[in-house]
Amino acid sequence: MVNKAEVLAQKQLEAYNNQDLEEFLSVYSDKVLIMEFPSNKVVTNGIDEMRVRYRKLFNEYPNNHAELLARMVHGNKVIDHELVTGRVNNEVKMAVAIYEIHEEKISKVWFL
């Protein structure tokens, strides 16, 4: 059986890589929080701030891409390990994101 949390994480990853802002945002709660881990410092609060942040990212880095290296799913949480390319000076970055799903939407994201 397919886990709903995993479906949402995959959908947002595909939309992110296609730089399809509205499709990307469609899986997030209107009250989504994006935080730093482990401090829980909120860096983006709500879908409107997220729209501004990712519109800027997609415009500034049209070759931005996240390759999924590994995924763990546990209940309503998904942990993705990614290789991110296409950013400043074509520097390759490793990223880890934790997605928490509530009421059929991604409600919280932590970046390590």
Secondary structure blueprint with pairings:
Layout: H1 4-17, H2 21-25, E1 28-36, E2 42-45, H3 47-60, E3 65-74, E4 77-85, E5 93-102, E6 105-111
Parallel strand pairs: 1-6
Antiparallel strand pairs: 1-2, 3-4, 4-5, 5-6
Folded structure, characterized:
It is a single chain. A six-stranded mixed sheet has the order 2-1-6-5-4-3. The N and C termini lie far apart (about 30 Å). The longest helix is centred in the N-terminal third of the chain and has 14 residues, at about 5-15. The mean pLDDT is about 95. It has helices spanning about 5-15, 20-25, 45-60; strands at about 30-35, 40-45, 65-75, 75-85, 95-100, 105-110. Strand 3 (about 65-75) and strand 4 form a beta hairpin. It has about 110 residues and is an alpha+beta fold. The chain has a single domain (about 5-110), classed as Nuclear Transport Factor 2, Chain: A, CATH 3.10.450. It is globular, with a radius of gyration of 13 Å.
Short description:
It contains three helices and six strands, in the order H-H-E-E-H-E-E-E-E.
Distance between the termini: 29 Å
Q: If you average the pLDDT, what whole number results?
A: 96
The 3D shape can be described as globular
Provide the succession of SSEs: HHEEHEEEE
* CATH-level-2 architecture: Roll
How many individual β-strands? 6
Approximately how much beta-strand content do the residues carry? Answer: 35-45%
Helix percent reads: 25-40%
Structural class: alpha+beta
Can you tell me the CATH topology?
Nuclear Transport Factor 2, Chain: A
For the biggest β-sheet, the strand order reads: 2-1-6-5-4-3
Overall tally of domains: 1
Count of DSSP-assigned helices: 3
Unreliable sequence segments? none
CATH class: Alpha Beta
- Characterize the biggest β-sheet: 6 strands, mixed
Radius of gyration: 13 Å
